[in-house]
Structure formats: structure tokens, C-alpha cells
Specification:
The chain is of the alpha+beta class. The protein has helices spanning 16-31, 43-49, 77-86, 113-121, 195-198, 283-291; strands spanning 6-11, 35-38, 57-58, 68-75, 94-98, 108-109, 126-130, 133-138, 144-150, 153-158, 165-171, 174-181, 183-187, 211-216, 226-228, 234-238, 246-250, 254-258, 263-268, 273-277. The strands form 4 sheets. A 6-stranded parallel β-sheet has the order 3-2-1-4-5-6, with helices on both faces. Strands 9-8-19-16-11-12 form a 6-stranded antiparallel β-sheet, with no helix packed on it. The radius of gyration is 21 Å and the shape is globular. The protein starts with 5 loop residues before the first strand and ends in a 15-residue tail after the last helix.
């Protein structure tokens, strides 16, 4: 047993800048007496790319998820979603350092990386809990055949381009509507700026506990985005008359085929995802910065400059 602090470092192995950043982060952690840890499935690749990473512990083989204090993520939103998958089942918060393009989930940009690592070492951060989804798939007989979770969204999509899905949408055990569509998106507030946003769903402030339900290209007069309470259960049933099959995707990372008659039930997970925050920035500022929204001419509230 050891009292040494274990910090997971997750880097996008296909980006040279992210791998170089991992070398710097690992060196800083070692200098501070912490134990840097790499994901077991890409540790060998990262060490082959940068021998300076040799000697780092492997998550799962040498260090348990429960022993990880925090995960430092070097990449874009996809890498952050991967990190959330890696630490699932533990209590480690995730600190995202954006090495990608938009990086909506990231806390800081790459220029502030060294200062961020020092604050991690000093435990100078706060932890924010984000609502996650628990997802269950049942077959036509009602047997549970697959279970998973999602931080951003769970989507039910058609498996073949030429076939629509025929679905019934149910909220809290009550049928709402039936229609043909390309699919359905069930999103958290965290995911509201991702697939949900592209599909025409609303942006939901992270402080609002809610779930968004958005049809994809529905062939119906009434198939508008919905925002429901966080304790509500959403069920999407693929009707047996559907000609093709569907597929469930969660965060674009985990999938399961949906035969006709399958039923996908989505509700709030008992286990939130934890994000490490260094700055108390307003979500409005994040929207403006990440989406480059035009705010020229803004003078501020009356009296703000007095």
C-alpha cells in the first residue's frame, strides 16, 4: 500500500501536441511526488511515441480506478468523454485541457496548462457534479439485454440510410406520440451543446437539472424538442412494424443494435460525472467564447460603468 497520490493523464495519442503535453504533465507530477497514471489500453503506444513516459503506472493493472484522485485530460471533447468512461465507478473529477478545436467540456486552454497542473497538485480546484444518464435496453419480451450510461446523450438511430424508424415515445410510463423518424436524441444539460444542439434542441444551462428529448427528421406534424424533469423516465420503443433495425449510441462511444420491438429506457443515473473547475466563469461567457457569438456593441446593464 502507498499514500502516494495517483493522477490519471489521458492524452489523445494521435495528436503530437497532446502527447508532448502529456510528457510535461507527467514530469510535473513526478517532480511534485505524485504518481502519474496512464490508461492501460494506450500506455504502450504513448511510451513508444515518447520514451520519457516510461515508468508510468497503468490504470487497471497497477492502479485501481478507486485510487485515482483526479484525471487530467489533454485533447478535445472526445478525449474528455473517454476519460469519463475510464474513471466511471470511481470518484475522480476530470480536468479538461483543450488541445482540440471547440473543446466545450474543457476547463482551460493549452496556454494555461502548467498553471493548471500546479493547482491540481495544490488541490486548488472545486468539483462540479454533472447529471448523467442510465440507459437500459429491453427486447420485445421485456428482458434486459444491455445496460450502459451517458454523459452527453443517448441516441436511437436508424441503422440503414433508406429505412425510417417507427417509434413510440413514452414519458413516465405514458405514451406521448408515435411517428417515423431518423432517430431520437435524449440529452443531458452537459450534452445540450453537442448532438442535441445540432439537432435543433435547446441549450440548457448546466445548473438546470433537466433532460432534453429531440426527434431527428421526424415525419410528423407534432415532433418538437421537449425538456422534461430530471427524475422523469424516457422510453423509446422501436415498433415491430419497422422495416429495418436501429442502433443505440451513447456519447458516440458505446453502441448496441436495436431489433424491431426493442425498448430503450433512459433516466437519470445515480452516479454523476464530476468535473474539476479552476475558474468560476459564467456559462454565458463559455457559450460566447466557444461558439464565437457576436456581442459587439454590448454596453452592459444600466449603471454597470458608473
Amino acid at each position: 500500500m502507498t499514500n502516494q497520490r495517483s493522477i490519471l493523464v489521458v492524452a489523445h495519442a494521435q495528436r503530437d501536441d497532446a502527447v508532448d503535453a502529456a510528457v510535461r504533465v507527467v514530469a510535473a507530477l513526478r517532480a511534485a511526488g505524485a504518481r502519474p497514471v496512464l490508461a492501460g489500453d494506450d500506455r504502450a503506444e504513448l511510451v513508444a511515441l515518447r520514451p520519457a513516459l516510461a515508468g508510468t503506472a497503468a490504470l487497471g493493472d497497477e492502479v485501481a480506478v478507486a485510487d485515482i484522485e483526479l484525471a487530467i485530460v489533454l485533447g478535445g471533447d472526445g478525449t474528455i468523454l473517454r476519460a469519463a468512461e475510464l474513471v466511471r465507478g470511481g470518484t475522480a473529477p476530470i480536468l479538461g485541457i483543450n488541445m482540440g478545436h471547440v473543446g466545450f467540456l474543457a476547463e482551460i486552454e493549452r496556454d494555461d496548462m502548467d498553471a493548471a497542473v500546479h493547482r491540481v497538485i495544490a488541490r486548488d480546484y472545486r468539483v462540479e457534479e454533472r447529471l448523467a444518464l442510465a440507459v437500459r435496453v429491453k427486447d420485445a419480451a421485456g428482458t434486459v439485454i444491455y445496460e450502459t450510461w451517458a454523459l452527453n446523450e443517448a441516441t436511437v438511430e436508424k441503422a440503414s440510410r433508406e429505412r425510417m424508424l417507427e417509434v413510440v415515445v413514452e414519458i413516465d410510463g405514458k405514451p406521448l406520440s408515435s411517428f417515423g423518424c431518423d432517430g431520437m436524441v435524449v440529452s443531458t444539460p452537459t450534452g445540450s451543446t453537442a448532438y442535441n444542439f445540432s439537432a435543433g434542441g435547446p441549450v440548457i444551462w448546466p445548473t438546470v437539472e433537466a433532460i432534453a428529448v429531440v426527434p431527428l427528421s421526424a415525419h410528423a406534424l407534432f415532433a418538437k424538442p421537449l425538456v422534461i424533469g430530471p427524475e422523469a423516465a424516457v422510453a423509446i420503443e422501436v415498433l415491430e412494424r419497422t422495416a429495418g433495425t436501429g442502433i443505440l449510441w451513447c456519447d458516440g462511444r458505446r453502441s448496441h443494435e436495436l431489433p424491431p420491438g426493442a425498448r430503450v429506457v433512459v433516466r437519470r443515473s445515480d452516479e454523476p460525472v464530476r468535473l474539476a473547475r479552476l475558474h468560476p466563469a459564467a456559462f454565458t461567457d463559455r457559450l460566447v467564447r466557444k461558439f464565437r457569438l457576436p456581442v459587439e456593441g454590448w454596453r452592459g446593464p444600466a449603471g454597470a460603468h458608473s
